[in-house]
Amino acid sequence: MKIIELGASVTASNDRDAALLRQRLRAQGILLVNVMSAAGSGKTTLLSRIIRDMESTRFAVLEADIASDVDAKTIEALGAKAVQVHTGGMCHMDAGMTAAAFDALDTTDIDIAFLENVGNLICPAEYDTGASLKLMILSVPEGDDKPLKYPLMFAESDILVISKIDALPYFNFDVEKCTARAKKLNPAIKVFPVSAKTGEGMAALEAELHKAQCAIRNS
Amino acid sequence: MHEMGIVLHLAKTLDETAAQEKLTRIGKVVLQVGEVSGIMTDLFTDAWDYFKGRHPVLKDSELVLEQIPAVTYCDNCKGTYETVKYGKECPFCHSGETWLLKGNECIIKEIEAE
Fold this sequence. Notes:
Chain A is of the alpha/beta class and about 220 residues long. Chain A contains eight helices and eight strands, in the order E-H-E-H-E-H-E-H-E-E-H-H-E-H-E-H. Chain A has helices spanning about 10-30, 45-55, 70-75, 95-105, 145-150, 150-155, 175-185, 200-215, and strands at about 1-10, 30-35, 60-65, 80-85, 110-115, 135-140, 160-165, 190-195.
C-alpha cells in the first residue's frame, strides 16, 4: 500500500458541487439565498413579507424537510413556488441536496430562490450550498449575545437580519451591541434590523436583495 | 446526526479520490479532528463502520483520528491559551475579546491505498 497525502477538508467534494451549482444558477440568472436561523426566528413571516412586497420579482422557496417552519401553503398562496428538499435526516443542507431540489423545479421563471436551511445556528454554517448570498436571521427574543455563542454563523453570513424589532421594548436586546459583536467577527456583514409585521426596515433589506439579484442577472 | 453528515462527505471525497488516482482499496484513513469541532469521535467511528460497507473501495478501511488541540487568541493582550481549559475568558488579562485560532477543523491528512 502507498500513502497518499491529501490535506483536504472532509467537505472538499461538497465545495466542488457547490461551485458547480453556483455557476449553473448564475447562467440562469437566479439568485440563490441560503437562509439560516434558529427555529422560531420568524422565517415564514419574513419571507412572506418579502414575496408580497417585491411584486415584480419571481420567487421560489426550497425547504429542508426537518425542522422546517416555513409553511409551503402560505408561500404558494403568495404566488411563489415551493419545493421540499430531502436532507435524509441530516442537520444541514449541502450542495448535492440543493442541486437535486433545483432539478425538480421548473427554473425558467425564477429570479430569487430562498433555501430555507435546517433550523439551527451551528451545522448549516459549515456547508456551502451553492448559494451566492448567505442570509441569517436573529430574532430579538433570542438575545444580542448570540454572535458570541455561534461565531461561525456570523462569520460566514453576508447579511444579518435582526427580526421582530417591534418586540424591542419588551426585551433587553441592544441592536448596536449585537451589530458591533457581529462586525467584529465579520467586518463585511450587512445588518438589517426589521419588523416583518410592521414593515419597519424592510425596504432597505429588499433593496439589498434586488441589488444582489441584478448583479447575478447582469454577470 | 452531525457525525453522519460528515461521514457521508468523507466517504464521497474518498470515492472521488479513488476514482481519480485509480485506487481499488483504501486502508488507513488518517483524519485530523479539532478539539472543539463538535465531532464526537466514538459516534464518528460508529457511523464510519456502518457506512464504509456501502462503498466497495472503503470496505476494509480503518479510521485513525488525530486530535488538533484548540487554541484561542486574545485580542486584548495578544496572547494565546488552551481553549478547553480556560474557555472564552483570557486567563492572562481576563478579557472576553478572544477568538478561536485553531481546533475547529476536520481534515483528511493522508490515506493508505493501493
